[in-house]
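Question (not urgent): is this output format expected?
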Amino acid sequence: MKYAKIKDRELHRIVSTAIIHKDGKYLITKRSLSKKVFPGMWTVPGGGMAIDDYVNEKPNKDKVWYFSLEKSLRREVSEEVNLEIGKIDYLLDLTLIRPDNIPVITFSFYAPWKKGKVQISDESVEYAWVSRNEAKKYNLIAGIREEIYMVDDILNGQKPKNYFK
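Got this back:
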């Protein structure tokens, strides 16, 4: 079996991404060449959820933490591009197995820019605000362009098409 090296078949790394929109444009970043996955390719801000995104806060009376994924995504956006985003809306989810055999589930969201000026972290080497059509010119990670198209459809009052067929 191709994925026999996966140790715990129930555990996944949880990642979230944000398609940030502002004035008809979408923020993309070019990943550092030192990244394990998709080095040097263009993507949108986001990253992995960490236990510290919730365990250092008091859980509710039922010992449950709510909105941890949203908190994680806001933290990642702040760390990676120094922006604050508005209301976060769910777009889709996807799964993949990284080259190091770690299964990943990614939750893709979209949100408006709220405030801040883009300042990239050492995880990225460039950034750009692009329109739907301009996104075609960039070497985006597979699926990101289609996600931008979906968000663009939604923001323009259309039902999003399935661009993944």
